Amino acid sequence: MSSPSATQNTYPYQNEPTWSKSEKAIARTAFDAALKRELQDVMRKTKQMADQIKEPADVWELEHYLTERRKEIDRKYDYRYSQLTHVFGRLLYERRITEEDLRGLGEDKMKPIRSLADLLAKYAN
């Protein structure tokens, strides 16, 4: 088996956009704000559920809710630059962020973010 030539690009994400220093700062701010809002929603719902506990089964329902939300949040919030356009596309679709939150990102990032948000909206209906 021959090795790739020096001119051949073997990096698997050759179409992956590069992130400037300012874009990284914008991305971090938007990501952190969305995560904070989502965690605040989880805390609010958890408090509501806790206030309604009347039976032992209600405790396990609360535990199940928290476990599922943690798994979903862990899957959704991936701050690797190779994943951010996907993450932001989903967050835009879910209205956890707005395009205003992402202002300053290059069109090479905004186009796939908008496309994914539009695709998710299309298939949600």
What does this 3D model show about the protein?
The chain is an all-alpha fold. It has helices spanning 21-51, 56-76, 84-93, 107-124. 14% of the residues are buried. Residues 1-13 have low confidence and may be disordered.
Topology:
Elements: H1 21-51, H2 56-76, H3 84-93, H4 107-124
| Secondary structure tally, helices | 4
Q: What would the average pLDDT be, to the nearest integer?
A: 90
List low-pLDDT spans: 1-13
Q: What general form does the structure show?
A: elongated
**Strand segment count:** 0
> What gap, in angstroms, lies between the N and C termini?
49 Å
- Give helix % range: 55-70%
Sheet-strand content, in percent, reads under 5%
Could you give the order of the helices and strands? HHHH
Radius of gyration: 19 Å
Structural class determined from secondary elements? mainly alpha
Largest sheet report: none
